[in-house]
Design a protein that fits this description.
It is a single chain. The protein has one domain: Amino acid/polyamine transporter I. 56% of the residues are buried. It contains 18 helices and no strands. By secondary structure, it is mainly alpha-helical.
Length: 414
């Protein structure tokens, strides 16, 4: 059986979580969230963070019991049923392939501030580069990701420190709820995208040192730190220019930073490039590892389980899902892609919460995964109809594969 090496400690796992969470969510999706909720986006963020925290506790507990590669896929596979595991993994792959496209486009929007290249072309080039880095191995990815995370956190700290003294409270207090409570809930459903990366840490369970202690700590640390950062940065951005200026902007923090001077615009743009690039790195890392785990259980073609003889990476999975991600980046748009990703993520997290209910002797009160399950399902109903249509169609494709193609392959092999 193919085995992966343990290379990630607590600092590395924490950085993978932060690298996955703080990226397109804060540098790109903030603009779309502001158009839905206005200044009340701050409340939307708290709602999203609360729901993510409930689910994060389920993932933390599940990772102690099942510290395997594949995260939620393995949790559902072992605690619910192989079919539930397949659907969970299928949805996770859909979500993260689309996330890759969103983040690639976010990278491209900020890159265009330096070089006027069409965003889809830049997004494609960025995806090709991250395919190469993932192909080279976990050690190289770990070094690059750690450096990018430290850099983007420094940039966001500068944005808050220098910007918070220049905010206009009227930008926040006047018309705080321009679209009412419905806008807040829609904003929360959309901004869930910003926190969804916390589970990325569980995907690499077999590559983490002392996973039963390291993974839960890394999950909760990453989510807690990122929530504080999101609130501070969003408060500063809206306070500087107002939500109308940020609404639907492809580079909202750069727009907000104009009031702090051209140097801060430059720093924010560089930070955004580092942030979105680090999320791209961990997104492809996650998709390749989930497909690796699914192939090992014969839920996907077995060649996806093959490791490179010298680099010890699931290189075929990296190449295939990297190419799919690149194609999405070439032909999709931000708003539609985020909605589709959120549909798949919320469905995936709902199943993971249900899996947590199957634990015989839970460490945390059983009410937590129940509320986590309910809130994930609730947020689904605030997504667009297009997200539901494409998400359901993807589920149908998955069902056809599971009950048709997969069974036929099993019969042929036997």
């Amino acid at each position: 059986m193919a085995e992966l090496k343990k290379t990630f400690g607590l600092f590395d796992a924490f950085n993978i979580g932060i690298g996955a969470i703080i990226g397109a969510g804060i540098f790109v999706v903030t603009g779309i969230g502001a158009s839905l909720a206005g200044p009340a986006l701050l409340i939307s963020l708290l709602i999203s963070a609360g729901i993510a925290a409930l689910t994060a506790l389920s993932f933390a507990e599940l990772s102690i019991i099942i510290p395997k590669e594949g995260g939620g896929y393995e949790f559902a596979h072992e605690l619910i049923s192989p079919f539930a595991g397949f659907i969970t993994g299928w949805l996770w792959l859909l979500s993260n392939v689309v996330v890759g496209a969103v983040v690639g486009l976010g990278f491209a929007h900020y890159f265009a501030l330096f070089f006027p290249i069409p965003v889809h072309i830049t997004a494609v080039i960025a995806c090709i580069i991250i395919i190469t880095i993932n192909y080279l191995g976990a050690r190289d990815l770990e070094v690059v990701n750690n450096a990018l995370v430290v850099f983007k956190l420094f940039i966001l700290a500068c944005f808050v420190v220098f910007g918070i003294s220049a905010i206009h409270l009227g930008n926040i207090t006047s018309s705080f709820l321009p679209h009412g409570s419905m806008g807040v809930l829609q904003g929360a459903a959309f901004m869930f995208f910003a926190f969804a990366g916390f589970a990325r840490i569980t995907i690499i369970g077999e590559e983490v040192k002392d996973p039963k202690k390291t993974i839960p700590r890394a999950i909760l640390l990453a989510l807690g730190v990122s929530t504080i950062i999101y609130l501070l940065v969003t408060y500063t951005a809206i306070g500087l220019v107002g939500y109308q200026e940020l609404a639907n902007s492809g580079s909202p923090l750069a727009d907000a930073a104009h009031l702090e001077g051209s140097t801060m615009v430059l720093l924010i743009s560089l930070g955004a490039l580092a942030a979105t690039f680090s999320v791209l790195l961990t997104t492809l890392l996650g998709t390749s590892r989930v497909s690796f785990a699914m192939a090992r259980n014969k839920d996907l073609p077995r060649f996806l389980n093959k490791l490179h003889p010298t680099r010890n990476t699931p290189y075929i999975a990296i190449l295939i899902f990297g190419i799919i991600m690149t194609l999405f980046a070439a032909f999709t748009d931000l708003t539609s892609a985020i909605a589709i990703s959120n549909f798949a993520s919320l469905f995936y997290y709902a199943i993971a919460n249900y899996a947590a209910l199957k634990i015989d002797k839970p460490r945390y009160p059983r009410i937590l995964p129940i509320v986590g399950l309910f809130t994930c399902i609730l947020l689904l109903f605030f997504l667009t109809s297009a997200a539901w249509i494409i998400g359901c169609l993807s589920l149908v494709v998955g069902l056809v594969y599971y009950f048709g193609v997969k069974k036929r392959i099993k019969t042929t092999v036997s």
